[in-house]
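Sequence and fold:
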Amino acid sequence: MKQAEKNTLEKDKRLIRDYIIPGLDVIKGFERYNENLMVYASIMSTYATDARISLETIKRVDVQGLNYYKITIHWIKNASFDIYANQIGEVAKDLERAAVNDDIDYIIHNNPAFLKAAFRLLDRLDIMLAYIKTVKRKSIMNRSDGMFLKKLLTAYNNYDVVAADAVIEETKQHQVTTNA
């Protein structure tokens, strides 16, 4: 491995270690995809897009839609385990088992909390992916953009809407100053 490749790998490792998303083991995922950050990010991006669509389709569950629910929750379970979103995968596994057993009451009772947790994971994943994209495009974007995204991620993880709005305003002001 050339020195430049080693340096890039070390930077990617540091970048991925900076992110702690509850329920997602980014280190294991990064290692699973041969420590290739762009491959791992691409897989996570596909997961986020497809999972969001699938989750939308299972917001309402009834006996007539149980077959579709089984198929969809099965996909979500497997895809979640593939990227090491193990908490979501485990809950999906329980919901799939309930669907196989026609236990609609269990699903109706547990699906809302599952959806909430899954969408929260996807939102955090979206922020992380945006940050990775920003860092990997250093030559195009100003380095301070990464700082703003880190601040935004911190605000989001703390459920601090006021802080997130402040970061967005700070970013707008910085763009005006930088582009002037």
